[in-house]
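note to self — DONT lose this again. spent like an hour looking for the file last time. sequence + predicted structure for the chain T wanted, 356 res
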Amino acid sequence: MKRLTTVLIPLIIISLLFCIVGCGGDEEETPATATSTPTEVETVTWKMGLTRGLEIFPGTAYQMFADLTQEYTDGRVRIDLYPHSTLFPSETMWEATITGAMDVFSQTGYYVTSVFPNMWVWFAIQGLFESREHCRACLEDGRLVQMMATGLEQEFPVKVLGLFPFGVQVAFITKDTEVTTLDDLQGLRTNSYPGQPPGPVHDYAGLVGAPVSMEEVYTSFLTGVIDTVSLPVTSMREARLYEVGNHMYVYPGGCYVVLCAINRDAWESLPSDIQDIIENRVWPEVYEWALDEMEAYEDAELDFLQENMATVHEMTQEEYATFWEEIKDHPIHKMMFVAIDPEVIDIVEELRPSNQ
């Protein structure tokens, strides 16, 4: 009997196990099948509107940003680029981004100055940045960029990746007047933004402002509506002004920056690992490349213009010191000093190379 019990007990246990597995099989089969099926990764497509083309800087930086984003995210995020304002006009791209009609804003920060006064520091106080070295120091220091990012993110539904420069030097081009100093521009008519008063440099040089849009600059210069054109050196060739002008004068006009910001809903829809890739891999690589590329591009543009101009003169350090000492007290500049956070101005002055 003892021997029979020893044989029957294992058989009973095995039979019970088969019954348990058999009865529960229908409930377990579906989850097992579901978890074994690989999940398909969805591709997110963002729209990014641009004012300029992709062949030249900063368009090349925008293309790099799009390419690296797609590469480093293994195709999970794709950015479609719309150059030459084919998606939205430049003036409405910021509004389009914060409303979600466009996903990525990567334009000159000038277009947010009317709603975020601290951004004026890069554009409105003409002569504040004494050189490219000064501009680069202010960007690489990081404090100003962080202040801009924090302020914009608090006021608008965006994620700010950062800023990079697209030019520092500004030039006046004339047809017949050789310009060796700003005094030689006295009485000439030049382009000014429609609806805005002539800038401090216009007043300092005795220029007469004429409201001319960017689209009208070339024709206005060609037909004599204006006698001289003032634009960043990096915009001169694209505007084809060398075809009309013969003389050029270059001075440090500002630290013109590109702002890259993403609609907050678009950003927060991404998984954290993808956010990390874009913020800590893609953007730093684009930023470092753009810092060096801006200087190389500005030099190449200046070389090209020198080859195609009868004369090219640049403001000397001595001239700059006199220029800045006088122009910083212009009423428009005083107004900007009030509108901009004093800490922003203090940082710019602290990092001024001539103060080191």
